[in-house]
Design a protein that fits this description.
The chain contains 15 helices and 18 strands. By secondary structure, the chain is α+β, with helices and mostly antiparallel strands. It has three domains: 191 residues, Uridine Diphospho-n-acetylenolpyruvylglucosamine Reductase, domain 3, CATH 3.30.465; 100 residues, 2-Layer Sandwich (Alpha-Beta Plaits), CATH 3.30.70.141; 84 residues, Alpha-Beta Plaits. The strands form four sheets. It has an eight-stranded antiparallel beta sheet. It has a five-stranded antiparallel beta sheet with strand order 4-5-9-7-8. A hairpin with a 4-residue loop joins strand 4 and strand 5. Helix 7 runs antiparallel to helix 12. The longest helix has 15 residues. About 3% of the residues have low confidence.
Length: 420
């Protein structure tokens, strides 16, 4: 019979994992459960819920550092940071609405935070980052240190409270993106940064993916310190809750500028003049700018009620993004949009037995990137490789790392690869 363990501290978690390793019992590691539909289905005997390992244990605004339990809600952290006019620079997304949409559940409003948006430990374990990644880096770049319990049932620590204290192996980078398959964190420390005073977004309307990609490239290569750059097809832009975007009935390239008020106003003015050579432009201020980028961050264009399309998350060199959209979207109900200046493609395809894996992998292979099956039924995620298949040498290295941290294979077995 399957059991659910709810450890209240690191020592209790250590005892659970040590027992599981000795008995070869496989465990599913759960924070808030908001990301259970991501990755392959976990093949576990029991589950471990980390809800008690929550709360902010350290916050030093002057030092730009925060420590918290892995199950601390992101909404709690963001509220505390906002009081000091600070933020999580990697702009963690809330995928709850888009993952729920395919099952018929309510999608939620794109301009309001979701109280079930996930936990700090979960977003770090999956290394999830929003539109600001092009400027601020990925979640792993702000992950300073942690304490954790390995698959051996051993408590260990890595990193520190500031970057200069990190010596030896930087295990934070390894843990970020391991999807809970190497160790279970009991506490994490992250870097935070000041929030911008003003946020505006320059919009360029019309044109195909190639023109949109050109606009994003112009903006990213400019000296105007762009903090986000995205492109929406006409069909997706028409669904935007931001009236200035949806009313145009055209595709839109969007570029975000942040910082001090006068500087933001000047940079937007000059950028509009330059992009104006490609088509009509407009500008979003304050609340509308925030609302638009929350829509992009949370993949809300594919979170409409009853939208059961399968979603691929494709990472390629930015110059290749428009070509991926042209090759894979625009017909048979498929659609796509670009983020990260063209380096991130969100592709929705109609339901099917293979999720169009072959053409997706082929296109990504030609571009030199990787594709993740982001939204699909559990049965399909169990058959079709969710993550980019690894070359033999990389697969062997991955297996050795897994064996070093979790030799009995008890942590989230099957979450990333069928073999472990």
């Amino acid at each position: 019979m399957s059991e659910t363990f709810r450890p209240e501290n690191a020592e209790q978690l250590r005892d659970v994992l040590a027992w599981a390793a000795s008995e070869s019992k496989r465990l599913e590691i759960v924070g808030s459960g908001s990301k259970r539909a991501l990755g392959r289905p976990v093949m576990a005997d029991h589950s471990v819920e980390l809800g008690a390992l929550a709360g902010i244990s350290l916050y030093e605004p002057d030092e730009l550092v925060l420590s918290a339990g892995p199950s601390t809600p992101l909404t709690e952290i963001e509220t505390v940071l906002a009081e000091k006019k600070q933020q999580l620079e990697f702009e963690p997304p809330d995928y709850g609405p888009v993952l729920a949409a395919a099952s018929g559940a309510a999608g939620g409003a794109p301009d309001k935070p979701n109280p079930q948006s996930g936990t700090l430990g979960g977003v770090l374990a999956c290394n999830l980052s929003g539109p600001r990644r092009v400027k601020g880096g990925a979640a792993r770049d702000h992950f300073l240190g942690f304490t954790a319990v390995s698959g051996h049932g051993t408590i260990f620590k890595s990193g520190g409270r500031v970057v200069k204290n990190v010596t030896g192996y930087d295990l934070s980078k390894l843990m970020a993106g391991s999807w809970g398959t190497l160790a279970v964190t009991t506490g994490v420390t992250i870097k935070v940064l000041p929030a911008p005073e003003k946020r505006r977004t320059v919009l360029l309307f019309g044109g195909d993916p190639a023109l949109g990609g050109r606009a994003l490239s112009m903006a990213m290569n400019s000296p105007y310190d762009v903090s986000a750059a995205a492109w929406l097809s006409a069909s997706l832009a028409a669904q935007s809750p931001v009236d200035l975007v949806s009313a145009q009935k055209a595709s839109v390239a969007a570029v975000r500028i942040e910082g001090f008020g006068p500087s933001v106003a000047y940079r937007c003015k000059v950028l509009r003049e330059q992009l104006g050579a490609l088509g009509p432009t407009e500008e979003l201020h304050s609340a509308n700018s925030i609302r638009f980028w929350r829509e992009i961050r949370d993949v809300m264009p594919f979170a409409g009620p009853g939208d059961d399309r399968l979603i691929w998350r494709i990472s390629v060199p930015p110059a290749a993004g428009p070509g991926i959209v042209t090759a894979l979207a625009g017909e048979d109900g498929a659609d796509a949009f670009l983020d990260w200046g063209g380096g991130l493609v969100w592709l929705a395809v109609p339901p099917g037995a293979d999720a169009r894996e072959e053409p997706v992998r082929a296109a990504v292979g030609r571009a030199g990137g990787h594709a993740t099956l982001f939204r699909a039924p559990a049965e399909l995620r169990g058959r079709v490789p969710v993550f980019q298949p690894q070359e033999a040498a990389k697969a062997a290295l991955t297996a050795r790392i897994k064996a070093a941290f979790d030799p009995a294979g008890i942590l989230n077995p099957g979450r990333m690869y069928a073999e472990f």
